[in-house]
Design a protein that fits this description.
Blueprint (H helix, E strand, L loop, with lengths): L29 E5 L3 H7 L4 E8 L2 E8 L2 E7 L4 H16 E2 L4 E2 L7 E10 L9 E9 L13 H14 L6 E4 L2 H7 L4 E7 L20 H7 L1 E2 L2 E2 L2 E3 L2 H11 L2 E11 L4 E2 L3 H15 L1
Parallel strand pairs: 1-4, 1-7, 7-14, 8-10, 10-13
Antiparallel strand pairs: 2-3, 3-4, 5-6, 7-13, 8-9, 8-14, 11-12, 14-15
Length: 285
């Protein structure tokens, strides 16, 4: 069997994967993820017990028990560059023998649920609502470096969106886990999420730096492909869905809508919206 080199899969002196600082025994098969490291403890404070904690850079991990279910909560930081590190190393924990550096014959599929915040780009998706990302569209270039298999529908959306936006590369569209969506998001809004490679310019915000695409959010708001439309935007979901598909994991992104860019509203009590999403996920998982 081919060994993965020490420079392709970097391990710490204790045998843990480099960035996540984890060993295979440190995680469960269900992973809840958040961007903000401080939100990890906000979730695990609700657990009956927490038996493992570690942190390295923006990656904080707690494992514990909620209503008899063993769950792992991890933070990723922001952006698909962080998600690329996170998912590759998480997959290595379950599908690579870290001692022999060989890929396991029998693969493990993890359940990975992102609990995040997002902004609405449609007037009829109000602040305070909860939205499950049925499909995600990446406006970053991460998939320029990977072979991503897409359905015909996903390919058509990718090509149409490049034409509509004039971007110099083709965006990538990927569908999330139907299994997890049915279990966790049956009463939530189902939408299609835009993953942006930044918070300011790529999301149409202007402070002092001049924005090259000042009408970009209007283009996204008005984009239609048959009955497909874009509903909300954030910075990670497309990376989750694309890498999750390639690596064989069930991945779902759930979003607390804290802002509406059409009506220019922002949630008056954003923490309550996030808390509602957290509690629903914990009780349904």
């Amino acid at each position: 069997m081919t060994q993965i080199s020490e420079t392709d899969l970097i391990l710490n002196p204790d045998g843990s994967v480099y960035h996540l600082n984890l060993k295979p025994e440190d995680i469960s098969n269900t992973i809840l993820t958040v961007g903000d490291p401080d939100r990890v403890e906000k979730i695990t404070e609700l657990f009956e017990s927490v038996d493992f904690k570690t942190k390295h850079r923006e990656f904080v991990t707690h494992r514990g028990v909620y209503k008899g279910k063993v769950l792992t909560v991890m933070s990723t930081g922001m952006g698909t560059d962080n998600i690329e590190i996170f998912l590759n190393e998480l997959d290595a924990l379950v599908n690579v023998n870290l001692t022999t550096r060989t890929i396991k014959e029998k693969k493990t599929s993890l359940n990975i649920i992102r609990i995040g915040t997002s902004g609405s780009m449609q007037k009829d998706i109000p602040v305070g609502s909860l939205l499950a990302s049925e499909m995600a569209v990446g406006l970053d270039t991460l998939m320029c470096y990977y072979h991503l298999e897409q359905t015909k529908e996903e390919q058509a959306i990718s090509k149409a969106l490049q034409s509509a936006t004039g971007l110099p590369f083709e965006p990538y569209a990927v569908t999330g886990s139907k299994i997890l969506k049915g279990r966790l998001a049956f009463d939530m809004i189902h939408g299609n999420t835009v993953t942006c490679p930044g918070f300011y310019g790529p999301q149409g915000r202007t402070l002092r730096a001049k924005n090259k695409l000042p009408g970009f959010m209007d283009v996204l708001n008005e984009f239609r492909q048959d009955d497909f439309r874009l509903t909300n935007f954030e910075m990670e979901t497309a990376g989750y869905y694309a890498l999750g598909r390639m690596l064989g994991h069930e991945v779902l992104s759930l979003n607390a809508i804290l802002a509406n860019r059409v009506t220019h509203e922002f949630a008056k009590e954003p923490a309550k919206v996030v808390d509602d999403l957290i509690k629903k996920v914990l009780d349904r998982i």
